Batch of 3 targets.
Target 1
Amino acid sequence: MDRICTALSEHGFACTLIGRKTSSSRPLVNRNYATKRMALWFQKGKLFYLEYNFRLFWKALFSSYDVYCAIDLDTYLPMYLVARLRAKKIVYDAHEYFSELEEVVKRPFVHFAWQKVEAFAIKSADAHYTISEGYALLFKERYNADFRVIRNVPWQSEIEQSSDEREPYIIYQGALNIGRGLEASVRAMHTIEGLKLKIYGDGPIHKEMELLIAREKLGHKVELMGALLPHDLKRATANAFVGLTLFSEIGLHHQHSLANRFFDYMHAGIPQIAMNYSEYKHFNDRYHIAYLIDRLDSAAIAQGIKALQDNQSLVDELKSNCQRAANENNWQIESQQLIKIYSNL
C-alpha cells in the first residue's frame, strides 16, 4: 500500500490511505500522502468485520474524494456505497483471490457469500487490477472480466546489510496466517543444523505458533521476531541465508499467488525456497532465483534448505540471478501501469 500511494502521490494524485490501528501498531512515519487509522473495539471475527465496514463507510462518506479504491473484498461494499452516493469512481484492487482463501473455502456458506460479493465487485467496479497473471486468468474465466496485472514488486534500491549478524538464519516475512507453511517450516527445523528460523510478522495464528514451537521443543532454533518497520525488515532480509515463500494447495488463491516476499527476497539478493506452483515456476524458469519444492511438508522444506547448505555454487548462482531479475522487475517500472489505470479514470 505504501508503494501504491507513494507512486500515485508522486504523479500528482492526492492520496489518503485508511486502515486500522491495533495495540501493536507502530507510529506512522512521515509520508507524501495522508493517512487515517481507526482504533476498533473488535479485533477478529464477524463483529470485527461488521464494525470495520461500518466505521470505514462513515469515515469515507464524510470526506471528499474523486476515486475510491477498495483493497480486497472485505473493504469493497462500504467503498462502493460511498462512491455511488457521491457519484464517483470505484476501483477494486484484488491483492488476493479472496473468495479462494484457505480459511474461506473450508466453510461452504462463507465461501458462497464471498463469491457473491466478488461477482458483484467485479461487475460494478469502474476499474480493477490484481497481482498475478494467474489471478487475472481466473477472473477472466469465472467472470469474463479483464484485470490489469500490477505485481507487488519492491522499489529498486541499494541493499543494506548489517555487519553485526554473525549467525546465519532462515527468514519468513509476512503475516502469520493459515496456509503459509509456517507449521511445516517449524517442524522442518528438527533436522536442520547450523541455521535458525526467524519469523518476522504478526497475525491471527501468532499464539498457535508460540504453542507449536514450545510443543516441538524448538525454542532454541525458531524465533518469533514480531513485525518490523519496512527499512529494518529490508536489512534483516538481506542478512538471511535463505527465505521461505510457501503455501498450501488448498484454494485457488494459494495455487496462483505471487507473494510480496517472493520479490522481497529477490531484491534482497538471497535465494529462497518456494512452491512449484504456476506463477513461481514461470518466473523461476526465466530467472532461476529459487529452489522450488513440489509439496508442502517438513521433509520437502528441510530437503530444500539442505540442498542449498550443501551447494555453495548453487547459492552463488541464485544470488547473482536475483540482481538481474531485480533490474527488470521493480516498482519503478511496474508502477507505470498503475498510473495509467488511475489516469484513465
Target 2
Amino acid sequence: MNEKYWVGFSSIEEIDSSFIIALFEYFGDIERAYNADMDELINFSAQSSGFYKKRLDKFLNHRKTLDLDKTYEEVLKRDIKILTYEDKKYPYMLKNISDPPAVLYYKGNPFDCNLDRTLAIVGSRRMSRNAQDSLKKVMSGLAGTDLCIVSGLATGADTAAHRFALDNGLKTIGIIGGGLDNLYPTSNKTMFEEIINGRGAVMTEYYHSFEPLPFRFPQRNRIVSGLSYGTLVVEAALKSGALITANLTLEQGRELMCIPGLITNPNTAGIYKLLKTGAHMVTDSDDILDALKWTINKQMPLFDENNSDKSNISEDEAKILSAVEIEPKSFDEIQKITNINIDNLLMNLTNLELLGFVEQTAGDRYKKTTI
C-alpha cells in the first residue's frame, strides 16, 4: 500500500513536504522513492543542484532504523485518516499552491464540507470585543448556507470563527500546527470534539506525535489560505501571523478581505495597510459573496436580529436600546440619557438581558447585542 510510504516520509521531522513531493515527482512512485538506492538518490540530488542534500542525508539516516509498518499502524490505531498528495480526493485548491502538504492527517470528514465554498478566517489571538462583534454580525448573514469556514483552531479570532460557524450551522475545518496527539490550545478540546463529530474536520500535515512548535504555525498558515478561495482578516497587527496568512493569500492568487476596526487599536494597523493596497472591505456577508463572485441560496438564519420580536418591549426599554445602539454605556450614562429612575432602569436592563437584547461588558457597561 502506497499510503504507508507517504506516512513513513512524513514521520521524519527533519524533512518537509517540498522534499517528499520532489522525490515523488522525480521517481513517479512514492514506494520507489522511499526504497531508492544510493545511485538513484545521488542522481536526484544532482538534478536539484544539491538543494535537498541536507534533507536527503536526514532521510537516509532515519530510513536505516525506521519501522515502516509500525509507524503506519500507529496512525491507524488512533483512528486518524490519511490523505496523500497523489490521492484523487486531495483538495484541488490546496494542490495548486507552491508548497502543498505531502500528507494530511485528519479526524472528522472534510468531504462532508463543500470544498468549492471555502472561506478562511484569521486574525489576532488577542481579539478585541469590537472585532468579535463585527465578525459575529458578518457571519450571521451566512447562516444556513453551504459555506465552509477554515481557520487554525488557535485562540482569539480562530476560535471565534469556528464558534460562529458552528452556531450558524456552517461546516468548519480546523488546521492545527502540530500532530493530532498534541491539540493546542487545550482549551479548544471541546470545540475539537464538536467539529469532528459531524460538523467538519480537524487536519494537519504533521505526524501525530509532532509537537506544536512555534515555527510550525507559520507553515500551517499556508494550508489555511491554500485550502480556501479567499481569506477574511478580522484583526492583524503589522507583525502578526494573520498578516503572514494575508500575504500568502495574495501569493496564492486568492481573494483577500478585511473587516475594518477601530483606528485606535494597534491590531488594526495591518488591516488598514491591507485595505490601502487593495483588499476588499467587508462590513456584511454580501461583501464576502461579492468579492468571491459567489451566488448562493441563503436559508433563514438561526436568529436574525432584524426579525427578532421587539414588539413586546416597553417604551423605557426602547429608550435603553437606543442609548446603547452605537457603543457601550455605563449605568449612569444610560440613566442620564434616558431619564429613567434608577429602580425602573435596573428592572428594564435585567429584562433586556434576559431577552438577549443587551449584555454587560468589561467595566460594568451595557451594549446592544449583535446576535
Target 3
Amino acid sequence: MLVSSSISAKGLRLFTYPADSATNTGIAVIVCPGGSYCWHDMEHEGREVAQWLQSNGINAFVLQYRVATISAYCIGYRVIGLGNKYPNMLTDVEDALKYVYQHADSMHIDTTRIGVMGFSAGGHLTMMSYTHNRTAYKPSFLCPVYPVVTMRDKQYTHHRSRRGALGVWGQFNKTMRDSLSLEQHIPADCPPVFLVNCVDDPIVKYHNSEMLDSALTAQHIPHRYIQYRTGGHGFGASDEKGTEECRQWKNECLQWILNLNQ
C-alpha cells in the first residue's frame, strides 16, 4: 500500500513516500517539481513521480522549495522587497539532502544511493544540488528532465525561470546570469547524470539539454542523454500527457538508476 507523509521544519517542506520494506532497494530520490521558479507542478512532476518511484522500491521525497510565486512574478514586488530568489531554492535542496542523509538509517536508505530528480526549473535545481552545493551532503546521481540549463544565452534562455530565480533586477546582472548557467559549471567530479528532453518542447528550448550534454561530455562525466522527437514539455510521470514516445523515459530512467546502483 502506497503511503506518504509531510515534513515541515525550519522552512523545509518535504513530502515523503517511503518504499515498502519488502521491496525497498535502499535508493532514495529527492524530486524537484518544475514551475519556472514561480510555482510548482505538484501533481505530474511531484506526486505522480514520487508514487512511480515508490512503487518500484525507491524512497521518494517531493521538495516544495521556495519560489518567487506567481504574484511576485506578475507584479514585481521584489523590486521593493526581497522575496524568494536564489539562493533560497538551493538552500532548500541542500536541507532536503541533509534530512535524507540524517534519517537514512531509520528509513533503510543507503547514503551512497541518494539522488535528485527534477523537471524544467526543477531540473536546473537538480543540477545545482551538486554543482553549487555548499554542504557535505551531496547527491550520488542526478536526473534532470527537460531542464532549464542556460541563463546567459539570449537565444535559448527560459526568461521566466531566470526572472523567477534571480528576481526583477538580478535577471539583468551578467555575473549572476553566468553563475547560474549550468553549462559553465560542471565540475570534474560530477556524479552520473540521466538527461532527457524533447525536440518539440515549446517552453524550454531543446538546445538547453544539448548544452548540458556537451558540458558533461567535455568533463568526461558518465551520463545518458535521450532526446525524443515528440512529447513537448511538462509531462512528468503522467500516463496521459506528452506522447507515447516520450513516456518511455520512465522505464529508461528506472533501469538506469537500478543498474547504476547495483
